[in-house]
Amino acid sequence: xxxxxxxxxxxxxxxxxxxxxxxxxxxxxxxxxxxxxxxxxxxxxxxxxxxxxxxxxxxxxxxxxxxxxxxxxxxxxxxxxxxxxxxxxxxxxxxxxxxxxxxxxxxxxxxxxxxxxxxxxxxxxxxxxxxxxxxxxxxxxxxxxxxxxxxxxxxxxxxxxxxxxxxxxxxxxxxxxxxxxxxxxxxxxxxxxxxxxxxxxxxxxxxxxxxxxxxxxxxxxxxxxxxxxxxxxxxxxxxxxxxxxxxxxxxxxxxxxxxxxxxxxxxxxxxxxxxxxxxxxxxxxxxxxxxxxxxxxxxxxxxxxxxxxxxxxxxxxxxxxxxxxxxxxxxxxxxxxxxxxxxxxxxxxxxxxxxxxxxxxxxxxxxxxxxxxxxxxxxxxxxxxxxxxxxxxxxxxxxxxxxxxxxxxxxxxxxxxxxxxxxxxxxxxxxxxxxxxxxxxxxxxxxxxxxxxxx
Length: 455
Description:
InterPro entries: CRIP, Cyclophilin-like_dom_sf, Cyclophilin-type_PPIase_dom, Cyclophilin_PPIL4, Nucleotide-bd_a/b_plait_sf, RBD_domain_sf, RRM_dom. By secondary structure, the protein is of the alpha+beta class.
């Protein structure tokens, strides 16, 4: 039974749980990890060469913190927030990386200690001081380099790292316990709460430089936040890609008269240059104008000229406002497929692939020579007429194989001089008629037979 703790840039820690010695403590820890209760929990209480503490989702420095709760307290209420600590006589804090639950005296019985959600990981060996005070339930098996980074982190007087180190994610590798009644596992990791974000000091991806200009540091912080927000919009599908920039040949026109049509704007703005698309944004349900539009020019200079000349111009008794567009919707075909198709049609691209510098290459050398019209012989290995004749003979042989022998026996045969001959069945029928003619003595039969042949 193991759990993986992801600590962001610090690295990952894998903890093996001692379910045979502390089953109830291991169950509580596993279910809290499964509920993503520890996500974004800060590392605090760092004592170099001794231990560090975590497990409070908000952190002990925040006034909103309640110190954490067990999984049963989260399900059944505050009355079961703590549970009796499990101390096994064979388990000692003898090795670095020993994982134990933080305990406190019970309110009802001072001789009994209880646990909640906070746990401790040792950073040194032979720490017998913690025996009997922290309930051991696991051991770090991977990630000792992460423990070394936490041990060497710069901390304040309370043992809180100046540069944030937090549990970003928890992954339960194996869980032998059944979920308690009322347990709900979230389908995905929850986003940090406002109280958790308020406790952030220095982000883990931010470099510490005491001599840096405050304005430069503030600009870097804003750029980092903008990049993070853009990445979030890309993940949810609101941006085609995080580093997208708005096109420089598109104008944004607002404060339009509701009666103004697309053709009117196209006619007015076309004097500055060729327009690829001119679209007034309308309500999808009613089709009414929302009084703003996007105009895309073929040339960036034409767009700039229209920006300087059309600001404050009166159109249909409305004084419009013109600015460069900050929309990137035209860069994503998934949103504006029909509009982009009209735009590409207006450009009338030449050549292949939408570029006039590309030209078609013939699949055979003969094709390129025919395009030149030089009339020189082809470079084919076989003569085209010969290939055509072979193809026709092969097709005839294939048709012959498709006919049954009975059909081929009834086929008319041609002689060398081209005269027709009857098939064998027709010859036998003719001989039979002659035989009947010789046997017949009735004039009527002769007359009927002659009429039949004349028909």
